[in-house]
Structure formats: C-alpha cells, structure tokens
Write a structure and sequence with these properties.
Chain A: One of its GO terms (biological process) is maturation of LSU-rRNA. The structure holds two protein chains of two kinds. Chain A is an alpha+beta fold. Helix content of chain A is about 30%, strand content about 20%. The chains are: A alpha+beta, B alpha/beta. The interface of A and B includes residues 19 and 117 of A. The complex binds S-adenosylmethionine.
Chain lengths: ~120, ~210
C-alpha cells in the first residue's frame, strides 16, 4: 500500500467520529521505483493532508520531507522537493504491518501489501 | 495503446477460479472492459495521469486496464481475499503497480474526493437487492470527476432517477447498451449462462470538496 492510499483511507467503525489518519505499524516496507510525473504531483498536492503524510512517511522510515507543507509555488521550481514528494507518495509501500484506528486502537492487518479493512459484525 | 492490444492483454488475465455466487463473481469480458476504459480515456480524458479506483475489482480486469492506459494510481477494492490474490498476480504479470484493499464497499471509510475516477462492474443486485446502487452511492462520494458503471438495462429509469435525486450525481448518461454473459444468476434458468442487456453509464458527481465518508 502506497502512502497516497494511506492518505485517503480511514477507519469506519460504528461510533468513530474521526477515523483519519490511520496510524501505521511497520513490519516491512518495500520500495518500487516508478517514473516521476510532475504534472500529477502538482495536481495531487493540494489534496494531500500534509500532516498525515509527513507522519506516515516518517514511520515508514523516510525523514526527508519538510514538516510544514510548502507553498504550492515550490512545486513549480523545486525539482528536489518534487523528487522527495514523489518517492514518499508513490514509491514506498507498506508490505507487512497494520493500520490502527486512531480512536479505538482496533488494528487492521496489512498482509502482502493489502490492508484488510473488513469490519466485524458489531462494528458496523 | 491500441484498443485491440488492450483487449488482448486483458484476455490473458486469470479470472475467478472458484466464483462465489453470493458475491456475484463473474468477470467483465476483455471486449467490454477494454471498451469501457478506452472510452473513458479517449472520449472523456478520465484515466491517464489520474487516480482511479476499481470498486469490486475481483481479479482486477478494469483496474489493470486503467493502469495500462496510464492511470498514475489505481486502487482495487474487493471484499474477497481470494479474488484479490488473483488480482495481485495479474498486476504482477503485467508489471503494473496497483494498490489493493480488502473492504466491503458499503463500509468504506474515505477522506474527501481524492479519487478522480471510479470504474466498476458492481454486483447487479440479483443476490443482494440494491447492491449496485450501494456501490454507486459510495462511488459518487469518493470520485471528483466521473464514475463508470454497468447496470441492467431493465433498471435504467430507476438508476437515473435515484442517481440524480439521492446519490450526489449532477449528470447520469447511458453511453451504450451491451450484451453481457452472466453465469447462473437465476436459479430457475436451465442454461449455464444467460445473456442480459446491460447499460454502460457515466455519472458525474457534484462537487462537495472536503466531505468524508
Ligand atoms: C460482477 S463482479 C466484477 C468483477 C471485476 N470487477 C471484473 O470486472 O471482472 C463483482 C465483484 O464485486 C465483489 N463484491 C461483491 N460484493 C461486494 C462488496 N459488498 N464490497 C466489495 N466487493 C464486493 C465480488 O467479490 C466481485 O469480485
């Protein structure tokens, strides 16, 4: 699971009011290179919840991102920033581990890169 | 990529080895799947460089087609782990980078409309009444740009009315009518497969930035 997906997914257990962001527990991270697409990065940037993304990347072992979200204009000129953003967003995969509901602590296991978000009967 | 080439790549994908009837597991054939994604890309510019989600992805045919046509990020979601295993292998065979999530679409928790386009061949609701409309309801909440979906032609008026009135669609348009081979949908059918009329729809969601589900 990429960090872009992590930035969208939230816990939907009955009664939980804010299930985002899911905390990440890492057992194994894999990196898969993909071609960088500057236009895509510029389009997706305003939709990213930066704090969740920054925290997630750190837990995944990547500490090169700035803690504060940069101004959108930075994406026009700063190729170095684009490279880092690209890497953290699209090349880091949580392969084994868990996603944890921020309110209840319920763990959703991640195996072979696939988070299991199925709810138990008493959670829907 | 040419349509014929896309269709032939999809034709090589592995499909449900042990289909679960209660989940309405049957594949979208390569001809329909390629046509759907090709139209979405070439007539509407909804696929390449986009974030695309495949709801009820099964063995991943529609998501793979989106990735082959240049989607930047594809997310396949299905309730069934066996299907997702096959989908993972299919993606690896074609060297596609696709994220899969195991989830019941009705319980999906999602932040805002970050996905651009949802493509899906939902269960038609023959087993669980209204299953296709449940999928559509969620799809129109997560997509910012478009939702492509297949529904039985016999439900056309209903789909249009409900989508526009209750499900956050600003437009609902039938792009074409198809014939679809569906195995064993009805117990009383003697034949193993029935050929039913299905509409390919394109829905446009209303903008409601920042709304979570
Ligand atoms: C008609 S099949 C389509 C499969 C695949 N998209 C394709 O085009 O070949 C419907 C799929 O929806 C999945 N499904 C059924 N109910 C579901 C639910 N509530 N949530 C998520 N997936 C579901 C089934 O497992 C099945 O893979």
């Amino acid at each position: 699971m990429r960090m872009l997906t992590h930035n969208m997914l939230s816990s939907n257990i009955k009664g939980v009011t804010n299930g985002f962001p899911l905390r990440i527990e890492v057992e194994k991270v894999v990196e898969k290179q993909v071609e960088i697409n500057h236009d895509f990065l510029r389009n997706i940037f305003p939709k990213i919840d930066w704090k969740a993304f920054f925290d997630a990347s750190r837990v995944m072992g990547y500490a090169e991102l700035p803690e504060e979200a940069p101004e959108p204009s930075v994406l026009e000129s700063d190729l170095e920033f684009l490279r880092k953003f690209h890497h953290a967003l699209l090349e880091l995969h949580l392969e084994e581990g868990a996603l944890v509901c921020p309110e209840t602590g319920r763990k959703f296991p991640v195996n072979k890169g696939i988070p299991n978000m199925l709810l138990h009967e008493d959670e829907v | 990529m040419k349509l014929k080439q896309l269709e032939s790549l999809l034709g090589g994908l592995q499909q449900f080895s042990n289909p679960k009837v209660e989940l309405e597991q049957y594949p979208t054939g390569p001809h329909i799947a390629a046509g759907l994604l090709y139209t979405a890309e070439n007539s509407f510019d909804d696929i390449s460089n986009k974030v695309v989600a495949d709801f009820g992805c099964g063995c991943g045919t529609l998501g793979a087609a989106a990735a082959l046509l240049g989607a930047e990020q594809v997310i396949g979601i299905d309730i069934d782990s066996q299907s997702l295993e096959i989908a993972t292998m299919n993606a690896e065979d074609l060297e596609l980078d696709i994220d899969f999530i195991q989830c019941d679409i009705s319980n999906l928790g999602w932040r805002g409309q970050i996905v651009d386009t949802v493509v899906m061949n939902p269960p038609f609701g023959t087993r669980k009444k209204g299953a296709d409309m449940d999928f559509l309801f969620v799809a129109l909440k997560v997509a910012s740009q478009a939702v492509y979906s297949l529904h039985k032609t016999s439900t056309r008026d209903h789909v249009k009315r409900v989508a526009l009135r209750d499900l956050n669609a600003s437009s609902a348009e039938v792009l074409c009518e198809l014939r679809f081979d569906v195995p064993q949908l009805y117990k009383f059918h003697k034949k193993k497969e029935v050929d039913i009329a299905v509409d390919l729809w394109r829905f446009v969601p209303k903008r409601s930035r920042g709304k979570d589900i």
